[in-house]
Amino acid sequence: MRDQENSLSRSARIHRKPPNPTTAEQQERFIHLVRLGWDLRTLGVRTSLVLPVTGQPILEIHSTAGTLARITVIRRYCGWVFTWRPWWARLWRRGEWVLAEADNAADIVMAEVTA
């Protein structure tokens, strides 16, 4: 399985499962989503934090018009980002994500989700 250079062979890389997020990463996701939920609450938006038994936590945004948006937070090269698009549509184009550390993240999320 390992070649002479002590690195994983191609067949081992293909069958390798992605690493499970650490407890610290899970807690950091939770903290970012709680902070966003609180900021959205100050804007008069109803939110719900969903903590599934398996999978990542999700922040659901309920608008007065009945719109439901699901916000996730993921780690990227630039840091933690909020995204509100489905996993298959997470192309890194403007309007599909915002840095979690941005001071105006709640305003940006609301503008994009309700548009």
TrEMBL record:
Domain of life: Bacteria
Bias (Polar residues) ranges: 1-10
Residue ranges of the region described as Disordered: 1-25
Protein name as it appears in the record: Uncharacterized protein
Naturally occurring in which organism (per UniProt): Streptosporangium album
Lineage: Bacteria, Bacillati, Actinomycetota, Actinomycetes, Streptosporangiales
